[in-house]
Design a protein that fits this description.
With 202 residues, the chain is α+β, with helices and mostly antiparallel strands. It has helices spanning 2-21, 30-41, 60-67, 83-100, 121-130, 148-155, 191-201, and strands spanning 49-52, 57-59, 70-76, 107-113, 138-143, 159-161, 167-169, 173-176, 182-186.
Length: 202
C-alpha cells in the first residue's frame, strides 16, 4: 500500500511539474510556445527598412498600415532546397485562391528573406519570377542586415546556419492585421482555412 501511495505521489508530482513548466500543458514545444506568445501579446511589426524585389525601400510598419490589408508572412532564403520550396508552393496556391475569391484588396502575401547578404533585390526578383508571383498579391523583401535580428525576434523565427552553407529554420505562416499587430502563427497547410475564416468574418 505504501509503495502504491508513493508511486501515485511521484506521478502527481511529475504531472504538476510538467503543467507548471508548460503553463497548464499549453507549452509543450518551443514552437507551441512561440505561437501562444504571439497570439497573447500581439506584438507590432518593427518599423525596420525592407527592400522589395523591385528595389523599392519601405519601412515595414508604415508599409503594412499603408497597405491596409491582412498580411500573411513567411520567412525564406532563396538558396533553400527543401522547406522553402514547400512554402513557395503553398503561397502559389494561396495566391490563386486570393485571386479567385477576389481578395486582392484585403489580403497580401509577403515572403521575407533572412539572408540579406545573398538575397539582393535582383535575386529576390528572379525568385519571384520563378514562382510566378503576382506583385499585386505577393511581394518579396529583405531587411538591412542590421535590422535582421529584431525582425526575427519579433516574429519568433529561429535561424541556424547548417554545415553546407544553408540554414535550418522554423517555418510557419504569420498573420498580421492591417494595424501591424501580429495575430497568430499557423502551419502553412492551413492558409486556405484561414482565408475561409476571414471571408466569413466580414
Amino acid at each position: 500500500m505504501k509503495t502504491l501511495l508513493a508511486s501515485v505521489i511521484v506521478v502527481l508530482l511529475g504531472v504538476w511539474a510538467v503543467a507548471s513548466m508548460s503553463e497548464g500543458f499549453e507549452l509543450l514545444t518551443s514552437e507551441q510556445a512561440r505561437r501562444l506568445d504571439i497570439q497573447r501579446r500581439q506584438p507590432v511589426v518593427p518599423n525596420v527598412r525592407l527592400t522589395d524585389q523591385s528595389g523599392g525601400a519601405h519601412r515595414f510598419g508604415d508599409w503594412v498600415q499603408a497597405q491596409n490589408k491582412f498580411l500573411i508572412v513567411d520567412f525564406i532564403y532563396t538558396n533553400c532546397q527543401s522547406l522553402c520550396r514547400a512554402l513557395g508552393s503553398e503561397f502559389q496556391q494561396l495566391q490563386r485562391n486570393i485571386v479567385e475569391r477576389g481578395l486582392q484588396n484585403r489580403v497580401h502575401l509577403l515572403s521575407i528573406s533572412f539572408d540579406p547578404e545573398h538575397d539582393s533585390y535582383a535575386v529576390l526578383g528572379q525568385y519571384a519570377n520563378h514562382l510566378q508571383a503576382n506583385p499585386e498579391v505577393w511581394s518579396f523583401a529583405a531587411p538591412a542586415s542590421a535590422d535582421l535580428e529584431i525582425l526575427l525576434q519579433t516574429f519568433g523565427v529561429t535561424v541556424i546556419p547548417d554545415q553546407t552553407g544553408g540554414f535550418q529554420h522554423n517555418a510557419a505562416l504569420v498573420w498580421v492585421a492591417p494595424s501591424g499587430k501580429l495575430l497568430r502563427v499557423t502551419d502553412y497547410a492551413s492558409g486556405e482555412q484561414l482565408l475561409d475564416e476571414l471571408v466569413k468574418s466580414n
